[in-house]
From TrEMBL:
<feature type="domain" description="W2">
    <location>
        <begin position="255"/>
        <end position="412"/>
    </location>
</feature>
<feature type="compositionally biased region" description="Low complexity">
    <location>
        <begin position="185"/>
        <end position="196"/>
    </location>
</feature>
<dbReference type="Pfam" id="PF02020">
    <property type="entry name" value="W2"/>
</dbReference>
<comment type="similarity">
    <text>Belongs to the eIF-2-beta/eIF-5 family.</text>
</comment>
<feature type="region of interest" description="Disordered">
    <location>
        <begin position="145"/>
        <end position="227"/>
    </location>
</feature>
<feature type="compositionally biased region" description="Acidic residues">
    <location>
        <begin position="214"/>
        <end position="225"/>
    </location>
</feature>
<feature type="compositionally biased region" description="Basic and acidic residues">
    <location>
        <begin position="200"/>
        <end position="213"/>
    </location>
</feature>
<dbReference type="InterPro" id="IPR045196">
    <property type="entry name" value="IF2/IF5"/>
</dbReference>
<keyword id="KW-0547">Nucleotide-binding</keyword>
<dbReference type="GO" id="GO:0003743">
    <property type="term" value="F:translation initiation factor activity"/>
</dbReference>
<keyword id="KW-0648">Protein biosynthesis</keyword>
<dbReference type="InterPro" id="IPR016190">
    <property type="entry name" value="Transl_init_fac_IF2/IF5_Zn-bd"/>
</dbReference>
<keyword id="KW-0396">Initiation factor</keyword>
<protein>
    <recommendedName>
        <fullName>W2 domain-containing protein</fullName>
    </recommendedName>
</protein>
<comment type="function">
    <text>Catalyzes the hydrolysis of GTP bound to the 40S ribosomal initiation complex (40S.mRNA.Met-tRNA[F].eIF-2.GTP) with the subsequent joining of a 60S ribosomal subunit resulting in the release of eIF-2 and the guanine nucleotide. The subsequent joining of a 60S ribosomal subunit results in the formation of a functional 80S initiation complex (80S.mRNA.Met-tRNA[F]).</text>
</comment>
<dbReference type="GO" id="GO:0005525">
    <property type="term" value="F:GTP binding"/>
</dbReference>
<feature type="compositionally biased region" description="Basic and acidic residues">
    <location>
        <begin position="147"/>
        <end position="178"/>
    </location>
</feature>
Amino acid sequence: MALQNIGASNRNDAFYRYKMPKMVTKIEGKGNGIKTNIVNNVEIAKALGRPASYTTKYFGCELGAQSKFDQKTGTSLVNGAHSTAKLAELLEAFIKRYVQCYGCGNPETEIIITKTQMVNLKCAACGFISEVDMRDKLTTFILKNPPEAKKGGKDKKAMRRAEKERLKEGEAADEAQKKLKKKAPSNGKESSSSKVSKNHTSDEDISPKHDESVQEEEDDEDDDGIQWQTDTSREAAEKRMKEQLSAATAELVMLSVEEEEPNKLVQVMKEYLKKGSPLSELKTFISSLSDPPQDVMDALVNTLFDGVSKKFAEEVIKKSKYIAAAMQEDGSQMHLLNSIGSFFRKKDNEEVGKEVARVLKALYDKDIIEEELVLEWYQKGLTGADKSSSVWKNVEPFVDWLQTADSETEGED
């Protein structure tokens, strides 16, 4: 049976994974009793994840003709003689209204009837809730004939429980490893050296603290020497902060440093993009910057999406060519994911936060980020310092969709 991509917008995508059979129709009867039989309507409806009675009823509503679906035989009939092209066109309209997510366009949605008798579509990929126009005639039929509840909820819960248990085991293993390192026996040399480092008797450990005090008191003439002796990267600065200050004070200082440093980079990034240089040169420009790669990616994301509040995912799709052009060979995908997470945390807005899954779905569809790294980033986030952030809750539908799609692919193989 010939197959085609679901959704007219995906017609020419050779790698699109969602497919349905091409419609086959047959004109039956004569005169006033003439009818159109959608021969493979059951197979089409199954591919769309909708009852075959919905598509049959929709054809009848749109054509102003009586329609009937026989549950026992699977026969779909619409009164009158209608061409396959016309019915296929109506099917595309049905897909757009009742199958595809209004947010990301994914056809893997579920019809939900709300307590207020509204018909919504919940996307399994990005978690977006699409509100169907209740003025449409088919909505009345759907309310009277709601879809059967999908099975497999228990399996999903079991998978989540197993994942949580694995995370707990991982945390316990990390803690045990840390304790072993602390209790590791030494010949006395390490302990004495650690005491020396704590008392700042080592020249290497004294220099950062000494340099900072000298930098405040002396003129700028000595700065060049200090720059060569002191590691000014964010990681080194954070380490020195924690050594010299309390945890709370160090966090405040690092926050102020983070606010100042990217501002300079953002300015540099804005000036470069304003020049209108070819996209092919963006990668070279980024690799020429001496700042840490994560800071550079943060600056790029902030430059591209500064001031965006609503419809953030649409902006990402529009400007994805800049992100794709900026990607380096190693580590760029993880830096991009970290930047997106940081961007949404700073927004601290529930409506904006819900779009993070749609953003990841858009980047995934354009092959900018890969599944393995998304899952790795998500697992690190759940166990990291920001594990309580709402970002991970909003990302969860997309992660579940990735894992489900994976298991389905393995089953097909």
